[in-house]
Automatic annotation (TrEMBL), chain A:
Domain Aldehyde oxidase/xanthine dehydrogenase a/b hammerhead: 20-140
The UniProt record lists the keyword Mitochondrion: no
Highest taxon above the source species: Bacteria
InterPro entries named in the record: Ald_Oxase/Xan_DH_a/b (IPR000674), Ald_Oxase/Xan_DH_a/b_sf (IPR036856), Ald_Oxase/xanthine_DH-like (IPR016208), AldOxase/xan_DH_MoCoBD1 (IPR008274), AldOxase/xan_DH_MoCoBD2 (IPR046867), AldOxase/xan_DH_Mopterin-bd_sf (IPR037165)
Protein name as it appears in the record: Xanthine dehydrogenase family protein molybdopterin-binding subunit
Keyword Disulfide bond found: no
GO molecular function terms attached to this record: iron ion binding; oxidoreductase activity
Pfam families, A to Z: Ald_Xan_dh_C, MoCoBD_1, MoCoBD_2
Swiss-Prot/TrEMBL keywords: Molybdenum, Oxidoreductase
UniProt source species: Lichenibacterium ramalinae
TrEMBL record, chain B:
Flavoprotein among keywords: yes
SMART domains: CO_deh_flav_C (SM01092)
Protein name: Carbon monoxide dehydrogenase
Superkingdom of the organism of origin: Bacteria
Source organism per UniProt: Lichenibacterium ramalinae
Annotated ranges, domain FAD-binding PCMH-type: 1-171
One Pfam family from the record: FAD_binding_5
InterPro entries: CO_DH_flav_C, CO_DH_flav_C_dom_sf, Diverse_Substr_Oxidored, FAD-bd_PCMH, FAD-bd_PCMH-like_sf, FAD-bd_PCMH_sub1, FAD-bd_PCMH_sub2, Mopterin_DH_FAD-bd
Key words of the record: FAD, Flavoprotein, Oxidoreductase
Molecular function GO labels: FAD binding; oxidoreductase activity
From TrEMBL, chain C:
SUPFAM superfamilies xrefs: 2Fe-2S ferredoxin-like, CO dehydrogenase ISP C-domain like
Record keywords: 2Fe-2S, Iron, Iron-sulfur, Metal-binding, Oxidoreductase
Molecular function (Gene Ontology), one example: oxidoreductase activity
Highest taxon listed in the record's lineage: Bacteria
The name this protein goes by in its record: (2Fe-2S)-binding protein
Residues that span the membrane, as ranges: none
Gene3D superfamilies: 3.10.20.30, [2Fe-2S]-binding domain
PANTHER family, per database record: OXIDOREDUCTASE WITH IRON-SULFUR SUBUNIT (PTHR44379)
Length: 788, 268, 166
């Protein structure tokens, strides 16, 4: 392993600009003559718009224009779309209601877009918006997830009279019923997977620009996948054909899923730029982010696990109601279906599984993928069930899991997935040793001496990353392919530009991708630059989400590098006057086998361009290759996280005392970056379990719309994490990597709740387990009545 | 933020005059409460009277006999690290050290906090427990007569707090259970045994109408100033806040817990 | 419009401003110093932290006019030429950042922390002192390591650019 090659903890090359304040985020982009947009948002969760009067606002100082949904309709601007078609069990397609970028006729959640004011300054736009007069007929709001289908009143969308988007199912009903019929024991739980608000620290932003001379648009946007944004804005919303629309996602300050989607604001900014003949800029205030970024999770689930007399799991039944909010966001329908149900088998060999998911509309912000997307929800269900079942059966939770682990591969689950490789016991053993499991009873006794409660919880998770192959996901309803592209451009001096369709917003691609190239071509890492996030530079790509950039994005680079090497060999053969088959390529040097005749990579590059040593009709000059890579399967990262908590029964405060993560991500390109991804994921998962509760009141007002009320994890909420890995090489991509971006967020919530319930001695606690909730739960604990 | 006229007076009289002349004018000290409110368009002053030029005049911490006098514009960060205060009333310095975060503490002032009288602010609990005197450009107001409810004080139009005088107690302690999101006090309890032996227990963050005295706790501690003395004493949920973070019953329970811990801190 | 003048990263600047201009807007929009970020509207996230007269403040919670006559240092003012400030270097060395959005505020807060609490910072202190800085990416683990290491590194006088003396 070289100092900058695969497996080396190379310091990040992108850091220099961030630590010196030279990052270029969308809000740092300023175009000459730009105007500023402010969106008037609905104060009501559900209302008919009877009229909108913008006359007074238009007369305000600085105002350039005021637009409403009518203007979009007049310009035939299409609505926002959901790109994944789900069919109900009865075969009917999901019921997608209209989703205009500015409301037309009705508003459906607090924060819905009613009008946009464009003015010389942001303050002027915001001031003028107060002068818009909207006459609303307020309707009853549908808020509650479990009750949405029976809410009565006017449905959120006409197409879904009982607010049901679809009734999805997966698995095998009869064998599952049979398993439950012969079960020795059935464990039942009811769970709420709490709604989360993503809160990337950079709020969403957009700058739309239009060039009158060429009739081309440019959109700078906070996006995880600019090409998909361009595709949707062009093909579905109809802003401009793709060759007339450039989308740039420069530095992006975190996404976690929330910046995958195509939103109303960027649509309006780019459309309005032509209408007003000036660049139009918008940057969300944090409150707007709370109101209108796509939220995550929001499931209500009943689940049952059947075990036989020997303690083997023989069946799993799950019924979930998934709240998708007021509109179907870009990938919302895939999250509680194909990203959820297929993962419910966890790390376990469960012969019969049947899952039903009812997706509902409500008058709340749209819900879509948030770090983990479906997989944390699935992991929460199975890992809570396994823990509770072990306790009910009087078994050690670690050993009960071990007894049910999948141990032979490939393993076909009853819910689509075919696990390719893994060694779940290896991660469990390492985690048990690291956390000092045998020492836990002594630690618990010590806590109890101080009047504290101590608990330990497991989470043995599996996830599926790099969603693919495209044909398979297409058959499941995906509107796009899930391959990735790469182009490797070797310059005549031997430096290399790699254009990738994936996007980095904190993941460090400029480093890891360059490590791969440097390693493979044997050139200094400084000679490699990674280009992403601009549709004018990178032809097409699918972006970054679902921990796909390593497994899919880097594999595309490998494929392009293969082609580069093949071509370079040919050139080297001509230069060295040897047969192509006699050329060896190693450490950046082409050598004629068995001789000391060699030429380095940079010289070959030059030769490829000067084209003096070969016949340009037989071998094309130049050294540039592209590739599209479509994986053969998902990848299946897995691991075991153990959380140890101490609870102060006087206050209900839970402190995390130990956190051990042992993950199998396959081959690691840069262990330093991988660890960082795990840390961040754990923090978000702990946030879900302990702190982050989204609260809408019964009228649909969001009560947690700022950091005054929505608790973000802070530095003192965590201990030092202990992060380790095991490795089984992923067989479905050339690098053997599985993906690591979401693991922490997937693993953490059940580990925390299993630890808390272990401490409490009962299972009756919901997320987020805030001090109040824990204090109340302690009072429900018969044997552990706290000394109050 | 709405537009406003900006003033930067060089004297107290000048500052007060702007407020008297403009009904919707407001003083600004550290701005750590006022500016967030203005940004969210919850406050809408026509004129903003920035007291920054009076900082030299209105800040500083000095001991005057059995009192410590703190200038209104003294910042939380200065208060937290004042040797004079750490020696005389460590519980008050300790309180200042946990108001907001370091950056807030380097702008926010004691006068601003007491003028604002946020029901979740910390200083009101100390002022009421220790019997502080609020000194203004016009008069001196005893803490007992100063706090009039949520964001309500005895200050008149255009009246400027210039200093706060803090009698030095025999012992005192403060414990705060932070609102998990905002980090303001969800329940804060200040206990003090004053120089004359009188015991005060005050509660901030919990009350539906702002800071209040917990007299049952005072009675118990007057008999025996120890956490053990509070074992049987419980606060009533009556009149306490219920919100998404805590209901009244939980807050009442926390008043007891924080009180015991504050006494423990005072007697440590 | 009233005029404000201050020293920013050692340079005197003077501009006419709308009174409601926050320091952060002044830095970002008037001076195009976009390294200072905005992450919230309630003064809680710390993405906007700069130094004013040597103390860390939230530039989103200060009017530009209130800073008249002050010396302001932003993230752009820390490095001396190509030499990074030791705290900047520590964040890089310890992978204390991912998306980089919170980073300028974190670094400015960390330097202020060293100025107030010295070079030997235990983990508990660092975690407590970061109360006003929110990071969504890193789980803070490596930020805490970076701050401790940066604090130590700031001790070596040779490595400390003038700024750190604040
Ligand atoms: C993130 C954050 C966290 C915080 N956490 C806490 C906390 O935990 N506990 C807590 O107690 N506070 C907290 N605060 C509030 C902080 O303590 C403020 O500093 C304080 O409440 C107000 O002081 P200021 O100097 O900033 O006042 P300003 O915001 O300038 O003014 C506040 C009000 O007081 C008036 N005023 C100011 N000075 C005077 C004066 N001398 N005479 C008369 N009227 C005056 C103003 O007109 C205004 O109405 C927090 C603030 C923030 C931003
Ligand atoms: S932007 Fe200043 S604290 Fe969030
Ligand atoms: S590095 Fe992204 S918010 Fe901290």
């Amino acid at each position: 392993m070289s100092a900058t090659g695969i497996g080396a903890p190379v310091l990040r090359r992108e850091d220099k600009r961030y630590i010196t304040g030279k990052g270029q985020y969308v809000d740092d982009v300023n175009r000459y003559g730009q105007a500023h947009a402010f969106f008037l948002r609905s104060p009501h969760a559900h209302a008919r718009i009877l009229s909108i009067d913008t006359a007074e606002a238009e007369a305000e100082p600085g105002v350039v224009a005021v637009y409403t949904g009518q203007h979009l309709a007049d310009d035939k601007v299409g609505g926002l779309i959901c790109g994944w078609m789900i069919h109900s069990k009865d075969g009917s397609p999901m019921k997608a209601g209209p989703h205009p970028a500015l409301a037309q006729g009705k508003v459906r959640y607090v924060g819905d877009h009613v009008a946009v004011v464009i003015a010389d300054t942001y303050s002027e736009a915001k001031d003028a918006a107060e002068k818009i007069v909207v006459d609303y007929e307020v309707l009853d709001a549908v808020v509650d997830t479990a009750g949405a289908r029976t809410a009565g009143g006017e449905p959120v969308h006409e197409v879904a009279p009982d607010n049901t988007v679809f009734e999805f199912h997966l698995g095998n009903r009869e064998p599952t019923e049979a398993a439950f019929a012969r079960a020795a024991h059935v464990t039942k739980i009811d769970l709420v997977n709490n709604r989360l608000i993503p809160n990337a620290m950079e709020p969403r932003a957009a700058v739309g620009d239009w060039d009158a001379g060429t009739d081309t648009f440019t959109l700078y946007t906070t996006s995880q996948n600019p090409h998909v944004a361009r595709l949707v804005l062009s093909a579905f919303i109809g802003i401009a054909p793709e060759h007339k629309l450039r989308v740039i996602a420069p530095d992006v300050g975190g996404g976690f899923g929330s910046k995958i989607f195509i939103y109303a604001e960027e649509t309006v900014c780019v459309w309005a730029a032509k209408k007003v003949g000036r660049p139009v800029k918008w940057c969300a205030e944090r409150t707007e982010a709370f109101l209108s970024d796509a939220h995550g999770r929001d499931h209500v689930t009943h689940a049952e696990l059947a075990t036989d007399a020997g303690g083997r799991v023989i069946g799993l039944k799950v019924h979930t109601v998934a709240n998708l909010g007021a509109y179907l966001s870009t990938f919302s329908s895939s999250v509680p279906t194909y990203l959820y149900a297929p993962l419910l088998s966890g790390q376990y060999d469960i012969p019969a599984i049947y899952v039903e998911v009812d997706a509902v509309y409500s008058n709340t912000a749209p819900v879509d993928a948030y770090r983990g997307a479906g997989r944390p929800e699935a992991t929460f269900v199975i890992e809570r069930l396994m823990e509770v079942a072990a306790r009910e059966l009087g078994k050690d939770p670690a050993e009960f899991r071990r007894q049910n682990f999948v141990t032979s591969f490939p393993h076909q689950t009853p819910v689509i997935m075919c696990y390719d490789v893994g060694d779940y016991a290896a991660s469990l053993d390492k985690a048990l040793a690291t956390v000092d499991y045998v020492g836990f009873p002594a630690r618990r006794a010590e806590s109890e001496r101080r009047g504290m409660l101590r608990g330990l919880g497991f989470s043995a998770y599996i996830e599926a990353c790099g969603i693919a192959p495209s044909a398979a996901v297409g058959s499941l309803g995906a509107g796009v392919g899930l391959w990735e592209s790469a182009e490797v451009r070797v310059n005549p001096v031997g430096t290399v530009e790699v254009l990738t369709g994936s996007h980095s917003h904190g993941q460090g691609h400029e480093t890891t991708f360059a490590q791969l190239v440097s390693d493979r071509l044997g050139i200094p890492i400084d000679n490699v630059s990674i280009v992403h996030g601009d549709t004018d530079k990178v032809q097409m790509g699918m972006g970054t989400y679902g921990s796909r950039s390593g497994a899919v994005g880097m594999s595309a680079i490998v494929k392009a590098l293969d082609k580069i090497e093949t071509k370079a060999r040919k050139v080297a053969g001509h230069v060295l006057e040897a047969a192509e088959g006699d050329i060896e390529f190693k450490d950046g040097k082409f050598t004629v086998k068995g001789t000391d005749k060699s030429i380095d990579f940079a010289s070959v590059a030059l030769q490829a361009y000067v084209a003096h040593k070969f016949n340009g009709q037989e071998l094309e000059p130049g050294l540039k290759e592209g590739a599209f890579y479509d994986p053969t399967n998902f990848t299946f990262p897995s691991g075991v996280h153990i959380c140890e908590v101490e609870i102060d029964p006087d206050t209900g405060v839970t402190r995390i005392e130990r956190w051990v993560a042992v993950d199998d991500f396959g081959v690691l390109i840069n262990p330093m970056i991988v660890e960082g991804q795990v840390h961040g994921g754990i923090a978000q998962g702990v946030g879900q379990a302990l702190f982050e509760g989204t609260v809408y009141d019964s009228s649909g007002q969001l009560l947690t719309a700022s950091y005054m009320d929505y608790q973000m994890p802070r530095a003192y909420d965590f201990p030092r994490f202990s992060v380790e890995t095991t490795e089984t090489r992923c067989p479905s991509n050339p690098l053997g990597i599985k993906g690591c971006g979401e693991a922490g967020a997937i693993a953490a919530p059940p580990a925390v709740i299993n630890a808390i319930t272990d401490a409490l001695g009962h299972e009756d606690i919901a997320m987020p387990a805030t001090p109040r909730a824990v204090w109340r739960a302690i009072r429900r604990t018969p044997q552990k009545m706290a000394a109050e | 933020m709405y537009a406003f006229n900006y003033h930067r007076p060089a004297s107290l009289a000048e500052a007060s005059a702007v407020l008297v002349a403009n009904a919707d004018a407001k003083f600004m000290a550290g701005g750590q409460t006022l500016l967030p409110a203005m940004k969210l368009r919850l406050a809408n002053p026509s004129d903003l009277v920035d007291l920054v030029a009076l900082r030299a005049e209105l800040s500083g911490i000095r001991r005057e006999g059995d009192r410590v006098v703190i200038g209104a514009m003294t910042r939380h960060g200065e208060i937290a690290t004042s040797d004079v205060l750490l020696a005389a009333i460590p519980a008050l310095a300790g309180m200042a050290a946990i108001v907001g975060d370091p950056a807030v503490r380097s702008r926010g002032t004691m006068g601003g906090s007491l003028a604002n009288n946020d029901p979740a602010a910390d200083y009101p609990a100390a002022a009421l427990a220790l019997g502080a005197t609020i000194v203004t450009d016009r008069r001196e107001i005893a803490a007992d007569h100063y706090f009039l409810g949520l964001f309500e004080t005895a200050l008149e139009e255009g009246e400027i707090i210039t200093a706060i005088a803090w009698p030095i107690p025999k012992r005192a302690g403060y414990e705060k259970f932070r609102n998990p999101a905002s980090r303001y006090a969800m329940v804060g309890v200040f206990v003090a045994e004053r120089a004359d032996g009188a015991v005060r227990v005050t509660v901030t963050g919990a009350g539906a109408s702002g800071v209040f005295r917990a007299t049952d706790f005072e009675t118990a501690l007057t008999a025996d100033f120890s956490s053990a003395a509070l074992a049987g004493v419980a606060a009533s949920p009556e009149g306490l806040n219920t919100d998404i973070h805590a209901d009244a019953e939980y807050r009442a329970h926390l008043v007891g817990v924080m009180a015991r811990r504050a006494v423990a801190a005072a007697t440590a | 419009m009233p005029t404000v003048s201050m020293t920013v990263n050692g340079k005197t600047v003077r501009r006419d401003v709308d009174p409601r201009t926050l320091l952060v807007n002044f830095l970002r929009n008037d001076l195009r110093l976009t390294g200072t970020h905005v992450g919230c509207d309630t003064s809680q996230c710390g993405a906007c932290v700069v130094h004013a007269d040597g103390r860390a403040i939230k530039s989103c919670t200060s009017l530009a006019l209130s800073c008249d006559g002050m010396a302001v240092t932003t993230i752009e003012g820390l490095a001396t030429g190509a030499d990074l400030h030791p705290m900047q270097e520590a964040f890089r060395q310890h992978h204390g950042l991912q998306c980089g959005y919170c980073t300028p505020g974190m670094i400015m807060t960390a330097i202020d922390l060293v100025a107030r609490k010295g070079h030997h910072l235990d983990e508990h202190t660092i975690r407590e002192e970061l109360e006003g800085n929110i990071c969504r990416c890193t789980g803070y683990h490596n930020i805490v390591k970076a701050v401790a290491a940066g604090a130590e590194a700031m001790k070596a006088p040779a490595e400390v650019p003038a700024m750190a003396a604040e």
